[in-house]
Amino acid sequence: MMTALQLADAGQNITLVERGACGKEASWAGGGIVSPLYPWRYGEPVSQLSRWSEGVYPTLALRLLEETGIDPEYRQKGLLYLNVDDDDAALHWARQLGKPLERVDAAFVHQKEPEAAAPGGSALWMPTLGSVRNPRLGQALRARLAAMPNVTLIEQCSVQGFIQRQGRVVGVDTNQGEQLAEQLVVCGGAWAAQLLEGLNVRLPVRPVKGQMIAYQAPPGLVQRVVLKDGRYVIPRSDGLLLVGSTLEEAGFDKATDEEALVSLKRSAENIIPALADCPVAHHWAGLRPGSPEGIPFIGALPDFPNVFINAGHYRNGLVLAPASTHLLVDQLLGRKPLMDPAPYQPTAARLA
C-alpha cells in the first residue's frame, strides 16, 4: 500500500491486487517498533533503509490522520534495552552515527518505567525510538488509497499466474479476470516466492512464523517500549500491551499454540512483573518474509525488466517500508534513486 501511495502521489494510475484484505498479513501482525530490535547488529544495507525510514513516520502519521481521520498512533517515547551483552558495540555504533544512546543504571530504568524489572546486566536507553499502531496504519493507508481517483483496489483477488506476450509480462491472471499493466510490482511478503515461480524465478524468501500476545492492562502501566533478551513489550494508548515474538520455521502455518503462549507470558512477566495480574486478551501469529541476512529485494527482475520486486524484509517490513518503497518508486519512474540501489537488486547472483 505504501508503494501504491507513493506512485499515486506521483500521478500514476495504479491497480492494487490483494488476495485477502489490504494490510491484514505481516504488516498487521507485527509490533510496530520503528527500528530493528538491535539495530547495531545489522549490516549497512538494512541500516541505511532504517535510518531514512525512521524520520518519515512522524510526518506520515500526521498526514494520514489529517486525510483519513484514522490515527496511526505514532509515539516517540524511546526504548529501554535491558540485559544487553554487546553494549560496547551498541555504543560504538551510536557514536559513529551520532544517534543518542546511553548506558543507564537500575535507578534510571525505574524512573522511566517503575513497573519494569530491574536489569540484571547492562541497560541502554534510546530516547528517539518511536512506534506506530500498525493495524491502524494499515487502515489509514487503505482508506487514503480508496479515496484517490487514480487508485483501484481489488481485494479478495488471488493471482493465478502472469500473462506473457512475445516474451514480455503484460499483466496477471486472477480469479476475477485479467489485469493488464505496463509495469508490475510483486510485494507479496512471505508469498512473493510462490508468485514468482510462475516466471521460473527462484526468490529466496520463506515464511517465518511469529506468535504474539496482548495483555489488557490499565492505561499507563507501561509508557514506552521495553526490550529484554530478544523479547519486547509495546504499549498502546488504550492500555493494550503487545508482547513478542517467537521465531518459527513452520511453513505457511499460522496456528497459535499453548507452548508459545506460556513462553511469551513468561517473557512478558520477566520484563513487567505486574502483567502477572493482567489478562491476556489476544494471541495471534503472522508470517514474516525471511531472506538472506534480512536484506530485501528491491528492483526489476533480470529477465523481465518491467516486473519489479519489493519483498524479503524479514522482521523489519514496517521499519524499512518508507525507504524501500521510495527506492522502488525511484526505479519505476526513472528518478535519481534515494540511495544506491545495488545492495537490494534481485540480481542473478542473489537469486541463485
From TrEMBL:
<keyword id="KW-0784">Thiamine biosynthesis</keyword>
<dbReference type="GO" id="GO:0009229">
    <property type="term" value="P:thiamine diphosphate biosynthetic process"/>
</dbReference>
<dbReference type="InterPro" id="IPR006076">
    <property type="entry name" value="FAD-dep_OxRdtase"/>
</dbReference>
<dbReference type="Pfam" id="PF01266">
    <property type="entry name" value="DAO"/>
</dbReference>
<dbReference type="InterPro" id="IPR036188">
    <property type="entry name" value="FAD/NAD-bd_sf"/>
</dbReference>
<dbReference type="InterPro" id="IPR012727">
    <property type="entry name" value="Gly_oxidase_ThiO"/>
</dbReference>
<dbReference type="GO" id="GO:0005737">
    <property type="term" value="C:cytoplasm"/>
</dbReference>
<dbReference type="GO" id="GO:0009228">
    <property type="term" value="P:thiamine biosynthetic process"/>
</dbReference>
<protein>
    <submittedName>
        <fullName>Glycine oxidase ThiO</fullName>
    </submittedName>
</protein>
<comment type="pathway">
    <text>Cofactor biosynthesis; thiamine diphosphate biosynthesis.</text>
</comment>
<dbReference type="GO" id="GO:0016491">
    <property type="term" value="F:oxidoreductase activity"/>
</dbReference>
<feature type="domain" description="FAD dependent oxidoreductase">
    <location>
        <begin position="2"/>
        <end position="330"/>
    </location>
</feature>
<dbReference type="GO" id="GO:0050660">
    <property type="term" value="F:flavin adenine dinucleotide binding"/>
</dbReference>
<keyword id="KW-0560">Oxidoreductase</keyword>
